[in-house]
Amino acid sequence: MIPFLDLSIRNMERRDAPKIVQMLASQGWVVDERILQPYFNLDLSTSFVAEVEGRVVGCVNSLIYGEVAWLGNLVVAEPLRRRGIGTALTMAAVKACESKGVRSIVLNSVPEAVTLYERTGFRGFVQLERFAGFVERRVGDAERCEVEDLTGLDAKLHGYDRSKVLHSLLDGANVVRCRCGENVGFAAAKMVGSKILVGPILTTQPEERLYLRLLSNVVQPFPKDVHVKLEVPLINPPAMNACATSGLKGTRLNLIMVRGKEIKSDYTRIGAIASDGDLG
Ligand SMILES: CC(C)(COP(=O)(O)OP(=O)(O)OC[C@H]1O[C@@H](n2cnc3c(N)ncnc32)[C@H](O)[C@@H]1OP(=O)(O)O)[C@@H](O)C(=O)NCCC(=O)NCCS
Predict the structure, then answer these.
(1) Which parts of 100-169 fold into alpha helices (H)?
(2) Which of 82, 85, 254, 279 to mutate to test the pocket of ligand 1 (most atoms within 8 A of CB)?
(3) How do the pLDDT tens digits run along the chain, 280 residues long?
(4) Ligand 1 within 6 A of 82 CB?
(5) Which parts of 47-146 fold into alpha helices (H)?
(6) Measured from the CB, is residue 225 less than 6 Å from ligand 1?
(7) Which protein residue's CA is at the shortest distance from atom 22 of ligand 1?
(8) Ligand 1, closest atom to CA 77?
(9) Which of 6, 24, 87, 149 has the most neighbouring CB atoms within 10 Å?
(10) Domains detected in the chain
């Protein structure tokens, strides 16, 4: 509590959805209400809003997968920033997750939020480059498949099962699978607002030509004049090269951060992460 602000932090409820979408959209982020569906469909007990004088002025979501939780969508209304609300929301989510047995909390931070997260106990884990631009379409090297086809490899590479959230996040996405010899890869993409968001891209072994194939095939059903966006781990050079070769431009570095017990995700075989749009 910060008395002079009359601040309270409470659990997020379904009725908060329109206000939260409005707040995220006010950042100029790629947003539609589907971004909140994984949280609203699954469990809101680790998601919070900040209220000042009864008005929602901030939010944070987190989702639990066994011992690991993912924290995201942290936003505070611009006029009320730098008064500790972001920190209070983060700590509320951290405590709620830990009280449910979570040992590691993972998030994807924009550069501006890294110090806030460091102060609340997170440390850098993997750096991502965000790419944007247009990608040449190709057909024929990949077959369409279902979300459940990639969840097994996703769980293996992340070290925990994200299938519930992937089903929700990738609802309506184009999902493809292709092969280079023994090496198999999967990619998903969907239109959100005026952007095509690509991710996850997962392969049994990192290989530039497989990433290129997946990228050019997964965007194939979408209009050619729409921007493609994806986030690629810097520790995966074949995936970074594939983005550069396909004409995408690096726009920003984000940081995957972890709090608590070390996680074992293998980002050398993750060509792009599953993205919520522009959100951290
Ligand atoms: C990131 C964000 C959520 C932070 O919210 P916030 O309420 O401003 O966060 P806090 O006030 O707890 O901390 C922000 C800074 O204010 C400082 N601060 C906290 N209380 C303060 C006070 N009373 N007086 C002055 N400064 C204060 C903190 O030390 C912190 O500084 P730091 O960034 O150098 O560490 C907010 O800036 C935001 O919504 N940004 C846009 C969305 C976004 O980028 N979200 C993060 C995605 S990963």
Answers:
(1) 114-119, 147-158, 163-169
(2) 82
(3) 455 678 999 999 988 988 988 888 887 765 666 667 667 767 899 999 999 999 999 999 998 888 999 998 899 999 999 999 999 999 999 999 999 999 999 999 999 999 999 999 999 999 999 999 999 877 678 999 999 999 999 999 999 888 877 887 888 899 999 999 999 999 999 988 788 999 999 999 999 999 999 999 999 999 999 999 999 999 999 999 999 999 999 999 999 999 999 998 999 999 999 876 555 4
(4) yes
(5) 85-99, 114-119
(6) no
(7) 83
(8) 39
(9) 24
(10) 3-102 (3.40.630.30), 129-272 (3.40.630.90)
For the Cβ of 252 lying below 6 angstroms from any atom of ligand 1, the answer is no
Q: CB burial class (10 A; 0-12, 13-18, 19+) of residue 42?
A: middle
Distance spanning both ends of the chain, measured CA to CA: 24
Whether 5 lines ligand 1, by a CB cut-off of 6 Å, is no
Residue minimizing CA distance to atom 18 of ligand 1: 82
